[in-house]
Amino acid sequence: MKRTQTLLTVIILVIAFTSCTGQDKMKKEPLQSYTTHSPTAHHKVALEVLEASKKWIAEFNQGNTEACIQGYDVNAVMSAMPFGVKKGIKEISEFWMPFITSGATNLIYTNVSVEVANETTAFLSANWSINVGQGIIYQEKWEKKSGTWVLTYDNFHVLEQFKTPKDNPTNPIGSHVALEEMIKASMLWTDGFNTGKSEICGDGYSENASMHPVPFPTVEGKKDIKSFWAKMIEDGATNLTYHNPTFKVITDHSAVLTSLWSMNIGEGKIYQEKWEKKEGKWVLTYDEFEVLQQY
């Protein structure tokens, strides 16, 4: 009887040890982060928000007050300094309708930046000007509700009011277009990496590009950068996913991207991808990222 009890005790201890070992093994093999969405889902969100913003600007410049007002959520809040805070669609309507009908037009956005929070929320900032003044947009909060992107919070400041209306020939959505082109180039690069096409990755850089992949050594020039990515792809790296990216226009021919990232072998942060338009093509001229965790 005593021998049987001893044997049972040993079996229980073995089972407990095996269970703990299995749990420890699971802990040592973390799952890839940010896979609740597809690799470029947040790129697509930025494109959708830019499209909604372009439409709002076009409606403003055409004097379509009703369409502009419909661009806001019914419970939206608008901080229009120095004119005060407007709460709800009624107060927002009472601000925009007389303003637009008074002759305000030629709305232009420059230095546009879009930060994606998730699949239904993004934040846009920019400088702006119209024929009667100019200022800054600190934040437009865009949310996707019932399949439509609407403004739920709008915070802008009129920094200067012109004594007489001024005409500005700048493309009202030039910054939007530049940012859209850069975002699409980034999506092409990401898809190339995830489908094992190292030539697409290499061609995504300028001839004299510089890459700083912390903690790895700096890589200079398109040829060596292409070899870096080809080796990583050959070793099995894939499923590169961008999370919570910010896309920001610097000029009509340059923009920067920052983001969290993950792939099947680790995760980290992109401190700066500098994209420039050269000979009609958007390419990376500077790329600095860090591996914060290797799986």
The biggest sheet amounts to: 12 strands, mixed
CATH topology call of the largest domain: Nuclear Transport Factor 2, Chain: A
Q: Structural class of the secondary elements? A: alpha+beta
What oligomeric state is this? single chain
Give me the Rg, rounded.
Answer: 26 Å
Structure description:
- The two termini are 49 Å apart.
- The chain has 295 residues and is an alpha+beta fold.
- The protein is built from seven helices and twelve strands.
Summarize the structure.
This protein has 295 residues and is an alpha+beta fold. It is built from seven helices and twelve strands. The radius of gyration is 26 Å and the shape is elongated.
Core attributes:
elongated; disordered N terminus; 12 strands; 2 domains; single chain; Nuclear Transport Factor 2, Chain: A; 7 helices; twelve-stranded mixed β-sheet; 295 residues
Which secondary structure elements does this structure contain, and how are they paired or packed?
Layout: H1 2-27, H2 41-61, H3 65-70, E1 72-81, E2 85-87, H4 88-101, E3 108-118, E4 121-130, E5 133-145, E6 148-161, H5 174-194, H6 198-203, E7 205-214, E8 219-220, H7 222-234, E9 241-251, E10 254-263, E11 266-278, E12 281-294
Parallel strand pairs: 1-6, 7-12
Antiparallel strand pairs: 1-2, 3-4, 3-9, 4-5, 5-6, 7-8, 9-10, 10-11, 11-12
Helix pairs in contact: 2-5
